[in-house]
Write a structure and sequence with these properties.
Helix content: 25-40%
Oligomer: single chain
Radius of gyration: 21 Å
Distance between the termini: 22 Å
Shape: elongated
Strand content: 25-35%
Number of strands: 7
Structural class: alpha/beta
Number of helices: 3
Length: 154
Amino acid sequence: MAYMSQEGYDKLVAELQRLESIERPKASAAIAEARDKGDLSENSEYDAAKEAQAKLEAKINQMKATLANAKIIDTSRLSADSVQILTRVDMTNMTTKAKMSYTIVSESEANLREGKISITTPIAQGLLNHKVGDEVEVKIPRGTIKLRIDNISI
């Protein structure tokens, strides 16, 4: 089951519609164009177009599966008492004193540029269910970091 915000769900639906209505016809047109160029046994353009279509179809199927298993979280029922999905966490790295803020979201909504990390990441997993003031040791690929939770908001 994929937990996500209404906003994330709506974005995924819009992207799926774009892929099905715009990208899928483009992929079919590319295949038809390559097919018109003659002998398919030595037509690398045709092979590339077929491969691109297969990747597009796989992406569409994966998005459909994610949407089928999606559970939209009612943000009005969330609490900022502890870290959970869709909460924004302000924290301090106790070693470097660097401050960071992340919103914990579903995998499909993760976007580091927007400060959104997936609930499946080591940092999010280490922070879950902790409260403001807690110091948490989180195992990351480069070792262990110690984080202090400074604030939790929705």
